[in-house]
Design a protein that fits this description.
Elements lengths: L1 H21 L5 H27 L3 H22 L7 H26 L10 H23 L5 H25 L7 H4 L3 H22 L6
Amino acid sequence: MLMTIHIAAGSIGLIAGTVALFARKGRTVHRQGGMVFVIAMLAMSASAIPLAVWAQKTTSVMGGCLTFYLVLTSFLTIRRPHERFDWVVIGAALAGISLAVVFYSLGMEGLRSSTGTINGLMPEAMFVFGSVALIAALGDVRVTLVRAVSRPYRIARHLWRMCFALLMAAVSFFLGQAQVLPELLRNSPVPALIPVVVVILMFYWILRVQWSPSAPK
């Protein structure tokens, strides 16, 4: 049952995330696609955690936790009004710091292992995920200390977290589960290009939101 939920939610999340990523920000298509993406990704990551615990894959447990954290805090960034010393945001910051510590610990464990890997993954990936969690947590700390947060900054903060969660899902499916793809697609450069496209669009929208006069304010 959990596996079915995980696969279905992940598939819906990838489709809805793609729609939201290409749609003009702030428009109805973006809002609706984004909402479906949030629900699907929260379900996908929440179902991934017990599955990973059952499989005894700590790295996958942490990947699910990081995805859940990024999507939830991104959603709250847009939906909640800004408040100084917001305990919800402070709690999110503490969660992000905890994630970073565990990821760094897993990376060190991988470096010390005889295979030089951790659960079959290169330890460098753990340091990347840990750094992402730490950057997000520091962003949480920052917004709860300042008196006001500009709308472009809030949108950019929302965008990069959603996009990174989409990137994790895309990498997990198109590269981590490449064996389920049709052979023609599997042997093409498409699976490797999709995460690259997500990264490019992430930076495109962040830059546009921050500096374009036509961006939503």
